[in-house]
Amino acid sequence: MDFAMEKRHTHTMEPMSMGAGVPGLVYMQNLFWIFIGAGLAFATAANVMNKILYYQRMAAASKRSPDPARPKSLIFQTHATLATIIREVGYYSSPLKLGKMHLYLPPMGPVLIMIAYMVLIVVTSFYAFHPKNFLEWEDIGYRTGFIAIAQIPFIVLLAGKRNLIGFFTGLGYERLSWLHRWVARALLFTILIHMGYWMTEWGKYNYIMVKLKTDFLTRVGMAAFAILAWLVLSSVAPVRGLAYEVFVVQHIISYLGFLVAVYFHVPAENQKWVWIPLAFWAFDRVVRAGYLFYNNASIFHKNSTGVLACRATFQPLDEAHTRVTILNPPVTWQAGQHMFLACHSLAPLSSHPFTIASLPQDGKMEFIICAKKGGTKRFFNYAQKAFPTQSSSRNEGKPVLIEGPYARIRPLRQFDTLLFIAGSTGATFTMPLMRDLVQQWHNPKRNSKFDFAAGGAVTRHIRFVWVVKRSSSLRWFSNQLDRVHAEVEGLRSDGYDVAVEISVYVTCDNTITSAASSINDRKGPQARVLSSIPTDSDDEKNEITTKMVSRTSSNFSQDNSVACCCTKVVDEDVDVISPPCCCGENGAPSISSYTTKGPAYNLISGRPDIANLIRKSAELALGEMAVVVCGPPGLVQGTRNAAVMVSDDRAVHKGTGAQGIYVHAETFGYA
Which residue, 5, 438, 494, 620, has most beta carbons within 10 Å? Predict the structure, then answer.
């Protein structure tokens, strides 16, 4: 190969100069960050606007406005209309049915954000170039390399538990984690373009193997690509869920290896893009370590014994759930936040995020943990040994480490009406939020500078919906439900115009149906069935007796061994008197609705009609309402879609007078 050909194929640290009229490489990096900054500025402005809206509503409530959550000025009305349009587009997700499986595509909001990001990558990579022109392939290779490395700080900023993006936008790290993963995938896409143009050019002259054998820059570049590909592949939800503890450790090690490979691959002027994300990552780790040490070292906290400040007791609640309790924790938190919990004596080198199911006023930090595998399974196994019977005996607990609290949520007391929807342990998120709001009603000056007319909140009406498989799950929060009911009744008797409706939907419980069927077959229509639900009291076994109203059915199953799953959607307001859910010979429910009215809540056999719940709450709202949902992905996305449908049907903020519907969604799984 002659000297000219050798020079053309040299992959040097210093890029070739761009042609006339083509922007420089550093200029395009700066342009990329200008657009990223603009996007972050827009998100920050939205966060500021939300805070202004909150204080405006609180001020209106303090002046005895009958509808403080309704926008009145032109500015707030315009904001409400724009917010509604963005929500209707951003919340929606197309459902897919594959056989018996129901899947949802990602919501349109994240999809549109990633489309815009990919457009930015493509434009900044190819602007002023002609991709089919062989003479420009090296220039495109250099440009895409510069654009690729400029993305690394953005990825690291999105990953930090305590980061600047979350601070300015008002979003917790868990709500940025999806963007962190997708920007990493966009980085892999950019590197594929970068590598593809170099490889294609070298391939025309059979020069690829020569570069791999003789060029150090090419080898470390391939190493960086391989590590990044592994980082992306191992971060896919099904893979990282196989062994989350292993995933976290290898993810950090792989990330550091990736930065080392990139550092030796790029020219000196680009090595700053390696130091910047490394500094961000180190800052996050140092701050987290500081909080971790302060929160857990007993020397910083009075009345602590031993080295660690926190000890936890583990109690089995049923066949798959554990209650973990830390008395007098050394940290405070807000409803809706979560902590990372580690008990290395039971699950070494394991730390998982769990939603805090209690309030600081309770004097204890509680978690309701579903036993799956790994650390959560070890917690449950230990709890069964520590509490072999339903006695009142207690163990001394295990030393634990806590990190946090994390997560942010818009103050819910600014909404006129609230609808909480939880699936199973999702109630650990919604229950504290509801209880906190009721306490705001009860004690208006606790966290406020204002003397609010509505008892410390704009909110007038709360609807709480909890979907569980078995009625025994009620023991998790039965005391809290009774307490909420008593507090609200006290407020109403004092003249406050507030209301809380609580409904528990049971989808799989043949103890209810078998009892109902045996009585109904004998006593005819309008029979009343008494059902006892165990409470969460550790000292005594209280019983909550509720009256269940039903009709007879000719298809009752007498086989108590058949698992009964009530899959029919039930409208509790229409099906107040209806047959219970009973199973046929094949295990399928023959009838799927059963309602009981209790003093504190309604117990219903079946699944809720989410769209109907949202619609009824929206019809009651005098101002903007909020839907807070936590549970499996299907429940969460189904709720988003239902909110979009109701908003569109009612023409929210489009001249009809219908008020906005805000959705805050939490899903199960690791962040």
Answer: 438
Nearest to residue 418, comparing CAs of 570, 609, 573, 621?
A: 621
**DSSP state, residue 630:** E
Q: Are 470 and 318 in contact, with CB atoms under 8 Å apart?
A: yes
Residue ending a domain, choose from 406, 422, 446: 406
Cα(311)–Cα(231) distance, integer angstroms: 36
Residue 44 lies in a domain: yes
Instruction: Say yes or no to pLDDT of 373 above 90.
Output: no
Q: Report the chain's mean pLDDT, rounded to a whole number.
A: 81
Beta strands in 491-562 (DSSP E): 499-506, 528-534, 543-549
d(CA 27, CA 37): 15
pTM for the complete prediction? 0.84
Give, in order, the Cα–Cα distances in Å from 39 to each of 45, 69, 121, 319: 10, 28, 14, 47
Tell me how crowded residue 343 is: count the other CB atoms within 10 A of its CB.
23
CA distance 550 to 579: 5
478 and 610: one domain?
yes
Domain coverage including residue 384: 311-406
DSSP-derived letter for residue 308 is B
Domain co-membership, 488 together with 622: yes
| 402 beta partners | 341
**pLDDT per position as a tens digit, 72-98:** 999 999 999 999 999 999 999 988 877
> Domain check: are 50 and 79 in the same one?
yes
Arithmetic mean of pLDDT, 454-471: 84
Q: Is residue 390 located within the same domain as residue 436? A: no
Read off the amino acid at residue 44.
T
Query: Which tokens is 465 given?
Result: 């919906």
Task: Write down which residue in 367, 384, 406 finishes a domain.
Answer: 406
Burial code (b: 16+ CB inside 10 Å, e: under 16) for 555-564 equals ebbeeeebeb
Q: Is residue 140 part of a domain?
A: no
Residues 610, 593 share a domain: no
Tell me, yes or no, whether 612 and 473 share the same domain. Answer: yes
Q: What is the dihedral of CA 197, 198, 200, 202, to 10 degrees?
A: 160
DSSP helix/strand/coil, 172:
coil
Q: Are 593 and 568 in contact (CB under 8 A)?
A: yes
Q: Are residues 499 and 614 in the same domain?
A: yes
Total number of domains in the chain: 3
List phi, psi (to 5°) of 581.
-80, 120
Question: DSSP per residue over 82-127, as a string?
Answer: HHHHHHHHHS---EEEETTEEEEPPPHHHHHHHHHHHHHHHHHHHT
CATH code of residue 343: 2.40.30.10
What DSSP string describes 360-415?
GGGTEEEEEEE--STHHHHHHHHHHHH--SS-S-----EE-EEEEEE-----GGGS
